[in-house]
Amino acid sequence: MAALPSPRTLDPHQAPSLRWGILGTGWIAERFTASLRRHTTQRIQAVGSRTKESADRFAAAAGARAAYGSYEALVADPEVDIVYVATPHNLHHAHALLAIEAGNHVLVEKPLAVSAAEGSEIAAAATEAGVFCMEALWTLFLPKYDVLRHLLDDLRLDTVLADLGERFAPDHRIFRADLAGGPLYDLATYPLSIAMWALGGPPQRVTASGTPAANGVNGQLAMTLGYADTAVAQLHSTILGATPTTAAFSAPECTIAVDGPFYQPGGFTVTWASGQSLRYDEPAGAHLAGLHFQAADVARRIVAGEIESPIRPLADSVALLEVMDAIREQVGIPLPGTPS
């Protein structure tokens, strides 16, 4: 191969402009709206929070035209085209259904829900209502992952390696069991999803072990996904400290080493068995530099009358939750909302 293929990602500025309703006013909602305002023509129509004061503050910063002191009022706004659910993981199910039942298209922050049963209910409700629904796994919409998609289509992988670890202050909400704390729903979503995407679907075997944080919430996970006798994914995620956060895809022909953080914009190197190497680079950046790509894809799909995106279909999101269910049961992590 003389050169790597170019990404087929369309210009986000050219996507049809929808009116977004933001359900939740936390960290990820701030970055999502900032990314849309900087990189697209999408419009922040309205914001809904548990209090009017919180909604007003967020609306002023995000340039929203309306602010509501309840989620019910937000989803009832006839000027909203699509609702972005950005509340804590254990509330995704209830808030996605709230938006769908009001007739809204919906983009739900990852993971779609906290169990396969909840995810399946969201998918069924969206299908019945005929509205667009997707899990906001923004990584797969980045230009570098389209280049990787080109490459992986021609490879038979035998190994995927990925880790994602961050250090958090003890008072961070990721240590709160009542908010689905621990690495599983926050960080592990990325290595698990990338492995399943690269290896073509759900695994035949899942094994996992973990250790607790000081307050008893699960602190780290070691996870192995087995694919018959053909491939294996070795994955790790932790909230106890920073790790390289890199990923690698290996096949007999070559190895692809993705720079850390692998789930954000950045680069990777392909090295063939012959010793030849090729490099892909794009400007590195975190959420602000990348969240808008998924929003642009969503806007195009909705205007085209589609109710899912082939880049992240709901079946893939539910399959991820089935793997998470297996990990949770093996490690002894309580289902959020149930007694420990």
Summarize the structure in words.
There is one protein chain. This protein has 340 residues and is of the alpha/beta class. It folds into two domains: 12-138, 3-Layer(aba) Sandwich (Rossmann fold); 140-284 and 316-331, Dihydrodipicolinate Reductase, domain 2. The protein has ten helices and 14 strands. It has helices at residues 27-39, 52-62, 71-75, 92-101, 116-129, 143-152, 183-186, 189-198, 291-303, 314-331; strands spanning 19-23, 43-48, 66-68, 82-85, 105-109, 133-136, 159-165, 205-212, 218-227, 231-238, 247-250, 254-258, 268-272, 277-280. The strands form two sheets. It has an eight-stranded mixed sheet with strand order 8-9-10-7-11-12-13-14, with helices on one face. Strands 3-2-1-4-5-6 form a six-stranded parallel sheet, sandwiched between helices. It is globular. The termini are far apart. The mean pLDDT is 96.
SSE order and pairing:
Blueprint: E1 19-23, H1 27-39, E2 43-48, H2 52-62, E3 66-68, H3 71-75, E4 82-85, H4 92-101, E5 105-109, H5 116-129, E6 133-136, H6 143-152, E7 159-165, H7 183-186, H8 189-198, E8 205-212, E9 218-227, E10 231-238, E11 247-250, E12 254-258, E13 268-272, E14 277-280, H9 291-303, H10 314-331
Parallel strand pairs: 1-2, 1-4, 2-3, 4-5, 5-6, 7-10
Antiparallel strand pairs: 7-11, 8-9, 9-10, 11-12, 12-13, 13-14
Helix pairs in contact: 4-5, 5-10, 8-10
